Amino acid sequence: MTSPTRSLLPVVALALVAVWACDREDPADFPWMISECLHCEAAAELALCGDEADNDEDGLTDCEDPECDGVGCCGALADEEETDQHCSDGCDNDGDGFTDCADYSCSKNPLVMVCKAPVETPEETVETCSDGIDNDWDGYFDCSDYSCMEAPEVTFCEGSDATCSDNIDNDGNGFVDCNDFGCSKNSSVTVCD
After folding, report:
1. Of all residues in the chain, what percent carry a pLDDT higher than 70?
2. Domain range for residue 176?
3. Is residue 146 part of a domain?
4. What is the pLDDT of residues 20-79, one digit of tens each?
5. pLDDT at residue 114, rounded to an integer
6. Per the domain annotation, does 95 fall within a domain?
7. Which range is least confidently modeled, 3-17, 82-96, 106-120?
């Protein structure tokens, strides 16, 4: 007959080895075993391939991890961002830090139509300066377009003496007043001279 103490020894030893090998506070919870992609069905799982973390601790993060191949933006990497499909998929296809119409490869490309209004119109109203497309077909849109920066009724873009001296990041690009190219490189702005 086997003693109860003797039959528990392998179980206890296995638990101690698991705790030591994993160096985790809670040996019952192994978040490091979560793959980068899991089954890639739920939104939370898809997010693992774009959260800038090495979720499965294999040394590979997001799109670098083969488990993310073909998942979300990992399946949309390309040499160039220059087609209507690549310029409207919400991914930084060419990896230059700019996505879709915010990438000059899209907005300045005459063959890409998703970044342009169907009909060329002036870009100088609140509506045309906040719709995310290039209305006047000059390759710039919204607050990146001097037409919007200089339009009197468009107060959310930096580009006038008033918006370039109010200590507010009006266009939300991380630069305030004269530190924003919309002010410092704009010849109609006098407060930054």
Report:
1. 75
2. 116-193
3. yes
4. 333 334 444 444 445 666 555 555 666 778 788 888 888 888 888 888 877 778 877 776
5. 93
6. no
7. 3-17
Q: How many domains does the chain have?
A: 1
Q: Which of 115, 36, 30, 98 is nearest to 72 (CA)?
A: 36
Q: Which two tokens stand for residue 147?
A: 């037409």
- Determine the Cα angle at 171 with ends 192 and 189, to 5°: 20
Determine, yes or no, domain membership for 67.
no
| Residue 116 backbone phi and psi in degrees, to 5 | -120, 150
Nearest in space to 163 (alpha carbons), one of 190, 135, 136: 190
Identify which of 55, 47, 50 has the alpha carbon closest to the alpha carbon of residue 30.
Answer: 55
Q: Classify residue 186: in a domain, yes or no.
A: yes
Distance CA 113, CA 87 (A): 9
The neighbouring-strand residues paired with 134 are: 116
CB-based contacts of 55, cutoff 8 Å, min separation 6: 31, 34, 35, 36, 48
Residues, the chain, total?
193
